[in-house]
Design goal:
alpha/beta, 7 helices, 16% helix
Length: 389
């Protein structure tokens, strides 16, 4: 079993990055829960203490640069989901990047085979069953078409984000990045030892908090055991399961609700698995509007834009959060956690996350994305800044 060590760094936005064993990065979304009652209670002073979490080795080290370069210069040697690679320059530095699908300029539609792996978590005889959320997730805008505002069109959420992102091409060609309607795989049953978990009562109901160091390896071992083809995108789905960086009984260590990862298959230097874990969250668990498939919308968008975790960009900080800290990763969801909108399918209305566009990271002006925007909703009016870094 792989062993990984997480650590925390204080910041003022809700985000997390997980780095793979071979320096292919796994990225995680972190949220601090509101005050809890009965089982545990968060002190008031901790309500506004988000975390940035990382695992393993330092993100984007020399190995990452090596693989990023090879993904750009020799993509044919890798077997994975369909992806394209390019680069941009800023301040005299060239930044290579890879994204899911095909180059938007070519106007090609790609469809990635997708599967959902339900995870039933049992802790102290209490069951948190991801299988109960499979239907709601599969019939969400992640996989079914929804109509988006301002003329972006009717399509899947991730495709809407990417088409708006690359609107300079998509406005007049057939560029799409679609997920197939997911195959539902056999349920993974995870019995969490008492020393690796804790249950909290929230206004939205009970949640179980699990130590991420233990959890990450359970998920990865199961992925390897399934021998999933590298051209498939598996999603591990849980229900009200949150992760902690450190002792799960300490609420200051909580709460990760999703991550995506890329790993070379055991014994291979060419087959790359990409996958995600996300938790379907009940309304009221968090004080911010993070519920239902919001965490997965964050992770799907980030997987589309940085599937291998190798995309380094100019150092940025969030304009609206001066204490956010500094980052150099192309993670489109991290600067906008809690900025949401609703999208509907015939099965219901869901809470999706706003996402940052490529020109925000590349510091392009004007933005060539939809409507000259820097985010899907137009939340930011200009490109990223490294002020305070």
């Amino acid at each position: 079993m792989l062993k990984r060590t997480f650590w925390t760094k204080r910041t003022t936005i809700i985000a997390s990055s997980v780095v793979a064993l071979i320096a292919v990065v796994a990225l995680a979304l972190v949220v601090v829960m509101p005050g809890l009652a009965h089982a545990q209670t968060y002190p008031t002073e901790n309500h506004l203490t988000p975390r940035f979490d990382a695992v393993g080795i330092t993100p984007h080290n020399a190995k990452n640069a090596k693989y990023a370069h090879e993904l750009l210069t020799d993509p044919a040697r890798f077997n994975s989901i369909p992806f394209w690679s390019s680069s941009f320059s800023n301040g005299g530095t060239t930044y290579p990047y890879s994204m899911v699908g095909y180059n938007p300029a070519y106007g090609i539609t790609s469809t990635v085979q997708t599967e959902i792996i339900p995870v039933r978590v049992v802790f102290n005889n209490v069951v948190f069953d991801g299988l109960t959320k499979v239907g709601a997730t599969a019939n969400s805008p992640l996989f079914l078409n929804s109509t988006y505002p301002d003329g972006v069109g009717r399509t899947q959420y991730g495709d809407a984000i990417q088409r708006a992102n690359w609107w300079q091409y998509a406005s007049h060609n057939n560029y799409h990045v679609l997920l197939s309607y997911p195959a539902i795989e056999s349920t993974l049953v995870v019995n969490v030892p008492s020393y690796h978990g804790a249950i909290f009562n929230t206004p939205g109901g009970q949640v179980v908090v699990v130590d991420i160091n233990w959890w990450f390896n359970v998920i990865l071992d199961n992925l390897y055991g399934r021998h999933t083809s590298p051209n498939v995108f598996p999603i591990f789905l849980t229900n009200n399961v949150l992760l902690s960086v450190g002792d799960p009984n300490n609420p200051n260590n909580c709460c990760i609700i999703g991550y995506h990862d890329a790993e070379f298959q055991p014994g291979s230097t060419t087959n790359i698995d990409t996958y995600a874990w996300g938790s379907y969250v009940s309304h009221g668990v968090f004080s911010v509007p993070i519920q239902d498939v919001n965490a997965l919308s964050h992770e799907v968008a980030e997987w589309l834009n940085d599937p291998f975790g190798t995309n380094v960009v100019p150092v940025w900080s969030v304009p609206s959060e001066p204490q956010y800290g500094c980052s150099n990763v192309l993670e489109v969801g991290d600067p906008l956690v809690g900025v949401t909108f609703t999208a509907s399918t015939s099965y219901g209305t869901y809470t999706m996350q706003d996402e940052v566009f490529f020109p925000w990271f590349a510091r392009q002006s004007p933005s060539l994305s939809f409507g000259g925007r820097y985010t899907f909703l137009g939340t930011f009016s200009t490109y990223s800044s490294s002020a305070g870094c």
